[in-house]
Amino acid sequence: MNKYVCTTCGTQYPKSHEEPERCPICEEERQYVNPDGQSFTTLDEMTESGVYQNTIRQEEPGLYSITTTPKFGIGQTAYLITTGGYNVLWDCVTYLDEETIQTIEELGGIDAIAVSHPHYYSAQLEWAERFDADVYLHVDDQTWVMEPGERIRFWDGEELTLNEGVSLHRLGGHFKGGAVLHWGQGGILLTGDIIQVVADSDWVSFMYSYPNLIPLPAAKVKEMAEKVKPLSFHKLYNAFHRVIAKDANQAVQRSAERYRNALEGKLFST
Fold first, then answer.
1. Fewest C-beta in 10 Å: which of 79, 159, 160, 204?
2. Are the C-beta atoms of 162 and 180 separated by less than 8 Å?
3. Where are the alpha helices (DSSP H) in the chain?
4. Model pTM greater than 0.85?
5. For 135, phi and psi rounded to 5 degrees?
């Protein structure tokens, strides 16, 4: 039996003799089905192909990015926070090989995995089992877990402290349980694409569906911005290696105001 992986979104499925008939993550309007149809692979096939590798790069003291090349699935970047002897993997990528494991072990391993939303669940249990770590997901998104497992810990409410200075905050928006990670000592907010850094890196935006360009209601964006306003952070990293390098909280607040003004017809006339 194999654990099949959707090639479009990177989600791994439980062991089975045959490929899944469908990928519910891709069929939902926040993602998409490849025009050529759904297709699946396995981690074994990926590693044996010799095509893929993970690039692990130090972004700043205590923060490392993990990106698979060439792009696989959605192409997101995961981040490893190493702080006070406690390591947290934020978001996840599908690809995992022995070189990646060795490099991360040299950095102290992984104590906990936290994921912003279902598009980045990918091979989260594979990573959890290899590093003996638990996975923290918001309970509001539990129906989107395609591979259940005992290592998954569903958290409820608006905030969860993982370790001193490292906390998760539910913002909703893109997904009802959509969360961000606040690393207080680093003054950093990691957002996946619950808050998305745009081409002009002094600004962010918010979406219900990115590939299908479905916006969020103005009231929800206001709520999301208000939830992060009390947090102390000056940098923001999204899931695609885009960074707001300074005054990031102010950037979120002014971006949310611009977004609301656009939806309410106050920003421009056309």
1. 159
2. no
3. 24-27, 43-49, 98-106, 124-131, 218-228, 248-263
4. yes
5. -110, 130
CA 26 and chain centroid, separation: 16
Over the stretch 212-222, which tens digit does the pLDDT of each residue have? 999 999 999 99
Beta-sheet pairing, 12-16 with 235-237: unpaired
The span from the CA of 108 to the CA of 58, in Å, is 14
Backbone φ and ψ for 189, nearest 5 degrees, come out as -115, 125
Residue 118 · residue 27 · CB < 8 Å? no
pLDDT digits (tens, 9 = 90+) for 89-141: 999 999 999 999 999 999 999 999 999 999 999 999 999 999 999 999 999 99
What is the C-alpha to C-alpha distance for residues 52 and 202, in angstroms, rounded to an integer?
A: 32
Please give the structure tokens belonging to residue 229. Answer: 């306003």
- Mapped onto helix, strand or coil, the DSSP state of residue 33 is coil
CA distance 124 to 13: 11
- Name the helix (H) or strand (E) containing 56: strand 53-60
- Measured CA to CA, the distance from residue 37 to residue 48 in angstroms comes to 24
Cβ neighbours, 10 Å, residue 68: 24
Q: Which domains does the chain have, with CATH numbers?
A: 2-263 (3.60.15.10)
Three-state helix/strand/coil letters over 200-265: CCCCEECCCECCCCECCCHHHHHHHHHHHCCCCCCEEECCCCCEECCCHHHHHHHHHHHHHHHHCC
| Amino acid 67: pLDDT | 98
Of the pLDDT bands very low, low, confident and very high (cuts 50, 70, 90), residue 237 is very high
